[in-house]
Write a structure and sequence with these properties.
Shape: elongated
Distance between the termini: 55 Å
Structural class: alpha/beta
Largest sheet: 6 strands, mixed
Number of strands: 8
Radius of gyration: 20 Å
Number of helices: 4
Order of helices and strands: HEEEEEHHEHEE
Length: 140
């Protein structure tokens, strides 16, 4: 006969572990991008408040097929002109402590034209979001 009296404790411990460790995705990506590679990269600290801008080609089923680059903020596809009002809304929601550490992270496909990046940066300047991070992976 096998004693299974401690089995519920073990199951709840494992369940609790996975609940703590699992990261829930907040945004459904509608664009596909391949992050560029770099050599001298630094990680952002957890103390910074981050807003993400995704730039890439749209997935086939989620948005109308387009060969051009699309910009995604949260779960919404936007034009370049909609970036400044979005960042202004984000700044209004933040506490003063988070506002001083606000960073905008641009996750762009490595094939994105520099003109698109420049237009996004101009909109961020208009919104007074001057701390910009470019996402990349470490090159081997």
């Amino acid at each position: 006969m096998l004693n299974t009296s401690s089995m519920p404790d073990l199951i709840f411990t494992v369940l609790f572990f996975f609940m703590i460790v699992t990261h829930m995705r907040k945004v459904t990506l509608k664009v596909q991008y391949q992050v560029p590679q770099g050599k001298e990269l630094t990680r952002l600290t957890k103390k910074t408040a981050i807003s993400y801008i995704h730039i890439g080609k749209p997935f086939m089923g989620l948005v109308p097929k387009s060969s051009s680059q699309q910009i995604q903020l949260n779960d919404k596809m936007v034009s370049v002109e909609e970036i400044a009002p979005y960042i202004a809304e984000e700044r209004e929601r933040m506490s003063p402590a988070d506002l001083s550490n606000m960073t905008v992270s641009i996750k762009a496909d490595k094939q994105t034209q520099m003109g698109v990046i420049t237009d996004v940066k101009q909109q961020l300047r208009r919104a007074n979001a001057l701390r910009i991070n470019y996402s990349a992976t470490e090159s081997p």
